[in-house]
């Protein structure tokens, strides 16, 4: 099976993406559960270990963006570049100036859905869209994406409101607040837009795999190939 150069690039970048997810999500869970600095002060708490996953992610985003700009057409990469930009800028501010590390680390948990996105691409390239594995991966992607990126929106912004209402936040530069809140809003708009596409795709895939009955009542094979 011939694979185009563009698909090879996407394959390699998504493989690296999976490695990135394993590293930063493991670190993020550890930090959120054990780091006393950010648990005691969600606005100003910081430590070396809490900023480590942010630094790794920032490096990964820069490298991935360079690859996409060099190897892919801009129209194919623009939504991912927008996501990278809205993630990289707040993380750079955090690593440079320090505040709101808790929120930056918390947002990294959204990456739990990324391996399912990547696996869907792998199966597609391999011609496995007609398989049960593709359906299962699509269902898991929809669930995990919703839990890690959509369901957390209300509690996340509730915490944002509490921090903004706190006097200690007044010490934050207005530009940092704009980057933090503005970047979060843009990312969540993208997440809602992506989830809508993922949900529609999952429903369509499940419907194609439903068994159909002929007039004589016998169950025939799933119409996985649109036959």
Helix content: over 70%
Shape: globular
The computed structural class is mainly alpha
Termini gap: 22 Å
- State the total count of DSSP E strands: 0
Detailed description of the structure:
With 227 residues, the protein is mainly α. The protein contains nine helices and no strands. The chain has helices spanning 5-34, 36-40, 48-71, 74-97, 101-108, 114-125, 132-150, 153-164, 174-208. The longest helix is centred in the last third of the chain and has 35 residues, at 174-208.
Descriptors for this entry?
single chain; 227 residues; mainly alpha; disordered C terminus
Give a brief description.
With 227 residues, this protein is mainly α. The protein has helices at residues 5-34, 36-40, 48-71, 74-97, 101-108, 114-125, 132-150, 153-164, 174-208.
Task: Give the helices and strands, then pairings.
Blueprint: H1 5-34, H2 36-40, H3 48-71, H4 74-97, H5 101-108, H6 114-125, H7 132-150, H8 153-164, H9 174-208
Helix pairs in contact: 1-3, 1-5, 1-6, 3-4, 3-5, 4-9, 6-7, 7-9
């Amino acid at each position: 099976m011939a694979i185009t150069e563009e698909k090879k690039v996407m394959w390699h970048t998504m493989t690296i993406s999976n490695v990135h997810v394993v590293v930063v999500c493991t670190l993020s869970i550890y930090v959120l559960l054990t780091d006393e600095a950010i648990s005691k002060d969600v606005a100003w708490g910081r430590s070396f270990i809490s900023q480590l996953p942010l630094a790794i992610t920032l490096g990964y985003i820069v490298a991935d963006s360079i690859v996409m700009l060099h190897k892919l057409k801009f129209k194919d990469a623009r939504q991912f570049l927008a996501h990278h930009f809205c993630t990289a800028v707040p993380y750079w501010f955090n690593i440079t100036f320090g505040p709101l590390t808790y929120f930056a680390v918390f947002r990294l948990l959204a990456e739990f859905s990324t391996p399912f996105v990547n696996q869907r691409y792998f199966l597609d390239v391999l011609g496995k869209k007609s398989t049960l594995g593709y359906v299962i991966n699509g269902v898991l992607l929809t669930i995990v994406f919703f839990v890690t990126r959509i369901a957390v929106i209300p509690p996340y912004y509730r915490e944002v409101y509490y921090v903004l209402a706190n006097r200690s936040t007044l010490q934050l530069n207005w530009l940092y607040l704009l980057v933090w809140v503005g970047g979060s809003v843009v990312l969540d708009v993208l997440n809602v837009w992506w989830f809508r596409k993922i949900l529609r795709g999952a429903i369509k895939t499940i419907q194609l795999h439903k068994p159909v009955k002929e007039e004589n009542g016998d169950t025939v094979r799933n119409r996985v190939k649109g036959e």
